[in-house]
């Protein structure tokens, strides 16, 4: 299924709504102001001014109203290695990570191979930039992705993370090692077949990345490309991102059960509050075992816990 998005001014939105008025359908989406269904396309107008076109006829309908805010536009702003024009249609092994900015929970990295003949299958299964998808939706499609594509997913738990971080490892080094390992696992699984390219969602310059993993016994170098916004450049990276995210969410579920409280994501004020409660009820050692202890949230949690003790 093809998806495309337009951002239109109010006058254009009114014309579009009038054009599809006789095809209007009821939508339960609280953010949608209008929806219409054609035999081969679904059109949804959002209160933000964006219009989503879905289905086999999406490109045709989009063309009537302007140029889509598509992955091509996002790709134009990506930084990194220069990719060939037809890169999105090639057989690519992609990798991505998540959890790096979350106080609670692990860092997870996934690598996923999508051959050229299955690029459309990935899209049919609902793959797009994970930042545009909800956690619940990713949980729903991840099993299909893992069943359809050769992949590897790794999770660095908090105790190991805190151990290597205390030894002086940066997050950049940790991520580079995990990416290299996940890529290595997928290449072994798919051998003797090889991808046309390997695309890593860039978090470090090429020379820095390889410096981080210089002492590894096996380093993946052949046809490796780096780019920011890589999820928009090939579905393999988008698949990897979704698989990594769901692995992170599942570990957060497990840790929440162990902690006896729903652990919030991120590193904001709500995280400090929950961390302080855990500190008071379970102690410092337990809190450290489920967090990235060097984050500023640790000190904030101690300060909040101290205040609660006084009252």
TrEMBL record:
Manganese or magnesium. Binds 1 divalent metal ion per monomer in the absence of substrate. May bind a second metal ion after substrate binding. PANTHER family: RIBONUCLEASE, RIBONUCLEASE H2 SUBUNIT A. It comes from Planococcus maitriensis. Residues 90-307 form the RNase H type-2 domain. Gene3D superfamilies: Ribonuclease H-like superfamily/Ribonuclease H, TATA-Binding Protein. Keywords: Cytoplasm, Endonuclease, Hydrolase, Magnesium, Metal-binding, Nuclease. GO terms for molecular function: magnesium ion binding; RNA binding; RNA-DNA hybrid ribonuclease activity. This is Ribonuclease HIII. The gene is rnhC. Its EC number is 3.1.26.4. One of its GO terms (cellular component) is cytoplasm. Its cofactor is Mn(2+); Mg(2+). It comes from the Bacteria. GO terms for biological process: DNA replication, removal of RNA primer; mismatch repair. Endonuclease that specifically degrades the RNA of RNA-DNA hybrids. It is found in: Cytoplasm. It catalyses: Endonucleolytic cleavage to 5'-phosphomonoester. It holds the Pfam family DUF3378.
């Amino acid at each position: 299924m093809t998806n495309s998005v337009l951002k239109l001014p109010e006058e254009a939105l009114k014309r579009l709504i009038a054009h599809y008025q006789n095809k209007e359908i009821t939508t339960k989406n609280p953010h949608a102001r209008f929806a219409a269904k054609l035999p081969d396309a679904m059109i949804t107008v959002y209160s933000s001014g964006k219009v989503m076109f879905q289905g086999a006829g999406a490109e045709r309908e989009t063309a009537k109203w302007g140029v889509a805010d598509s992955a091509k536009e996002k790709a134009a702003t990506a930084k990194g290695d220069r990719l060939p024009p037809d890169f999105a249609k090639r057989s690519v092994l992609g990798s991505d990570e998540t959890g790096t900015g979350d106080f609670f929970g692990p860092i997870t990295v996934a690598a996923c191979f999508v051959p050229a003949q299955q690029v459309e299958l990935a899209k049919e299964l609902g793959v797009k930039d994970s930042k545009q998808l909800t956690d619940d939706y990713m949980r729903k499609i991840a099993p299909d992705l893992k069943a359809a594509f050769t992949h590897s997913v790794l999770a660095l738990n908090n105790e190991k993370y805190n151990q290597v971080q205390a030894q002086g490892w940066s997050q950049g080094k940790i991520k580079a090692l995990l990416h290299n390992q996940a890529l290595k696992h997928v290449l072994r699984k798919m051998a003797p077949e090889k991808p046309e390219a390997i695309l890593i969602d860039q978090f470090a310059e090429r020379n820095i990345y390889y410096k981080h993993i210089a002492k590894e016994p096996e380093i993946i170098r052949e046809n490796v490309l780096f780019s920011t916004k890589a999820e928009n450049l090939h579905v393999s990276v988008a698949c990897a991102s979704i698989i990594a995210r769901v692995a992170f969410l599942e570990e957060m579920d497990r840790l929440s059960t162990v902690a006896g409280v729903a652990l919030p994501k991120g590193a904001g004020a709500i995280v400090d509050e929950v961390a302080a409660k855990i500190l008071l009820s379970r102690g410092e050692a337990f809190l450290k075992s489920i967090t990235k202890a060097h984050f500023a949230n640790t000190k904030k949690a101690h300060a909040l816990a101290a205040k609660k003790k006084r009252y």
